[in-house]
Design a protein that fits this description.
By secondary structure, the protein is mostly helical. The chain has two helices and no strands. The two termini are about 25 Å apart.
């Protein structure tokens, strides 16, 4: 496997983790805010992997 595949797999695991924390912290505003912020940050880090290199 290429290094890129491992990096994408790692980020996908971070996203799954962020979703789990989001579900677990539904009753806490700050916990929910932090987990959603973390989820968005993980998604932003994935954007360059799916952009075309021109």
């Amino acid at each position: 496997m290429k290094k890129r595949h491992f990096e994408i797999a790692g980020w996908l695991l971070f996203i799954v983790s962020a979703l789990g924390f989001t579900i677990a912290s539904i009753s806490s505003f700050w916990g929910l805010f932090g987990s959603l912020f973390f989820l968005v940050a993980c998604l932003v880090f994935l954007v360059p992997y799916f952009m075309n290199d021109d």
